[in-house]
Amino acid sequence: MAQEKAQPEFIxxxxxxxxxxxxxxxxxxxxxxxxxxxxxxLDDATGGDISTARESSEFRGRLYEFFIARVTGGPYQAVxxxxxxxxxxxxxxxxxxxxxxxACSYTARLRSMRSAGFLVRAGLDPIRTAxxxxxxxxAAEFDSGTYKSERDAGDFPERMVIVSPxxxxxxxxxxVFEGRTLGESSNFARxxxxxxxxxxxxxxxxxxxxxxxxxxxxxxxxxxxxxxRDLKMGLLLGVAQGSAEPPRLVVIRHDPPGAPExxxxxxxxxxxxFDTGGISxxxxxxxxxxxxxxxxxxxxxxxxxxxALLKAPRRIIGVIPMTENMVGGKATRPGDVLTSASGTTxxxxxxxxxxxxxxxxxxxxxxxxxxxHLVDVATLTGACMVALGRTxxxxxxxxxxxxxxxxxxxTEAGDRLWPLPLYDExxxxxxxxxxxxxxxxxxxxxxxxxxxxxxxxVKKDVPWAxxxxxxxxxxxxxxxxxxKGATGVAVRTLVELGLRASLEx
Length: 505
Ligand code: BES
Ligand code: MN
Ligand code: ZN
Known about the structure:
nine-stranded mixed β-sheet, 20 strands, binds ligand BES, alpha/beta, single chain, 15 helices, binds zinc ion
């Protein structure tokens, strides 16, 4: 077994970029007329290579374009300078900047740089950008090849320096810590999603989340099958009954001393460790990806980790129902009727619409535990992916003001959330002959009818938002800023909500 690697060190410095001693200093350059005025002498330090490259259009500052030059003289202490294309300055929002920093981290790792620096350019917010930089520079630490006999992805740097000239030192140190913590947490979620389902069973998922919680001083409670039965969670049990693996329900609480009684944020994450579709079985093609059907749950756990470490000032409850959705002699059949913990009866039309079932019981439970504002996160519907592709997550909920709050948090955090409707008419599509509702209304408006199903388990007047991350949880292709595989989506949105001073818009 390889020795446990030491944690990389992330530090901030408010000094001049010239004095940063790293193997590679990354300098974001905007497309257009970015004259690097905040970096006098940089071109000379590379013997004029930078100006030559720019004049000849070898480097234009296009997004994720790199130009690496050795420092040959002058005041710069770095061994190499790497210009990274940051696209147009006016497009430099949180998501863009994080991606640029992430692309730098992949470049550093592929080249096995032992240390790297990320420069916050003049004109950008020196603190906010430092936080985003530390977050993005953590991206390449995630390694999707955990089961390869020989690693071939280079080594992640031991030391990362976020350079924010002139920044306030205390605020900078806090920002780097925050960004690094977010990046680590996002990688924690990505690692969980990447784990194969034979390793990450519901009970293993629960143990890992509980261990994480304990390591950051959160209280976590793992409910087993009998306790789930005692709570009468017929929907969660109905999904789990086809599997040899027993279900779990994990409750994580962040209860900082002195926090107001209310509001209490409730985060609920879908934790299906593998989704075969059940008796309404999925086609074989691509089914292996369904190991990531617990990404919503992982995002909730990762957000709770971050909020504990960043000492969020409010009460937050995370609820993660965990199960497999398997085929077998004991599996739920289409036509079966299940009774939820809230008492609502559900006729199963399609056993592949399992996420909404386990979330129904979990939403109810979060409210039982005192959550006053709900956000659930789930790889819920292929229909949402059809609507928005891999570009944005679907956002649903009520009231409008709460949905707007969540959307604003997403924008600030760099997760793209796009609102989709919950018209009353969709409720009609859930009518059952035999029970209160059916679990699958078929093809049309599939993302909205799924959200409408969840809405049945939210008490009147409780603000609730639902993020459908089916399209955004997993990257099918490798990009400059992202490995193929789990993306860490939604973690930052939940964290942003937890840190907000007010939950009103
Ligand atoms: N986990 C899937 C949704 C999904 C599909 C996520 C593709 C990521 C990629 C979910 O449990 C599911 O199977 N949904 C069904 C619902 C249908 C039966 C109403 C779907 O979207 O096909
Ligand atoms: Mn399914
Ligand atoms: Zn599923």
